[in-house]
Amino acid sequence: MESLYAVFRKEISDHFSSYRFVLLFALIAMVSFITSYMVGMQLRDNLETLSKTRFPYLMLFSTPGAVFSMVQFVAFFGPLIGLVLGFDSINRERAHGTLIKLVSQPIYRDAVINGKFLAGVITILVMLVAIVLVITGFGLSIVGVVPSLEEIWRISVYVIISLFYISLWLGVSILFSIVFRSIATSALASVALWIFLSFFVTLGAEAIANSITPIERQDVQAERVIKNIRIKEGLSLASPMVLYSEATATIVDPMRKTTGSIVFMSPLEQILSSRFQNPLSLGQSLIVVFPHATALIAITLICFAVSYLVFMLQEIRS
User: What is this structure's pTM?
Assistant: First the structure.
């Protein structure tokens, strides 16, 4: 345990004292300031609509600014935080010749990988909490929105899901830093995988769905449209960004009652649903997003487990 704490303390010190962290944190703070300010000004110009909303504080996170909302920003660019923090965590030590010196000390090998991953997770948590506090401060100063207890719990759940989502990419970058000896190669591989899983998977899912059940014709039946959408949404779940976006959108928006984009209901179901227009409680929202959150957490743990196993079995040479 002492060896783990020593590695963790050293990595935390390196993260917070590096120019990389300062530049990354400055970029995130700037985007948070700009997005929060624009959203706050929009909400202040629509105080009548805001007063009729039961959860005005959550709108600070879900309302788009000039381009995207804060939730969308973390979904698209949050992985870069994990990739930047971990792409050279192991091969940098190997290139400088410090890894063999580190494991020759009375430090267990697993303490090295565990300490580096834990330090990265804590750094990500600090950034996420800072973003939430910045948005909260702007909401209080510009709009005068005070979060309720349920809103605080929802934002806490949102931070936890975001922590696992970004930690997934931290684990990916650490894995590539173990597999590849070149720092540039591990960085390029991490970014390439992020681009593929975040953007090309959804495009490929749409192409496959259109090839299986084309809906370009005007006389297409409703069953084919439903099948096309189900295939596309099912294949899109292979993207961690889709899992994260659907889960957090449901948590931050209590009026959203499903993670799907389109819901098909019979006339009787439409009549029954019209009687239940109240927002979901936090417990009900957690039930809705439970499969997505569980899959995201499982992928994160599996990714780190693979990194741990590869590092423990890998030969360390001077």
Answer: 0.87
